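tool=predict chain=A
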Amino acid sequence: MSQVQTILEYNKKFVADKEYEQYITDKYPEKKMAIVTCMDSRLFELLPKAMNLRNGDAKIIKNAGAIISQPFGSVMRSLLVAIYELNAEEVYIIGHTGCGMAALNSEHMINSMREKGISDDVLNTLENSGIKLKKWLRGFDNEKEGIIRTVELVKKHPLLPSGIPIHGMLIDSMTGELELIVNGYNDQEGLDV
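tool=predict ok
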């Protein structure tokens, strides 16, 4: 039986048994927070538990490395939607220890693309079109640097309303311990931290 078939069979039982009822909430984040974090599978349950989050508490946006590299890309758009349309009042950029984006080897990844059938013609066409793959596939030297860089990009975004704290945190992938790297309240005048 294929994995997709297994999922669909499980889902029928999940719906029939009304197991979804414990997850019912609305689209607005109860704790008024938006989180950008890594897609690393170790964080799937660990991060919400470590932050005392339940279903419906936060908007969680995941990508490789919790990095926002394009100020007008889909991750930043999602943050702006969370703020303007879904009432998020704080943003958390949360990286993690042992992240694969730390010192990502773009040349190795490009070679893997070749091995999986992406032709040099396609790679050259992209390069000649102005897409610098080595730069685009670049990670960061260490996790804290990636967090700080992304926090700065968000804070300086021209469409970000004033008064939104942008925090940066590092979560330990094994223990769930959180380290505050950037306290977004420090940028807010008149707020008690």
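Strands lie at 33-38, 58-63, 90-96, 166-171, 178-182. The chain has two domains: 28-104+142-185, 105-138.
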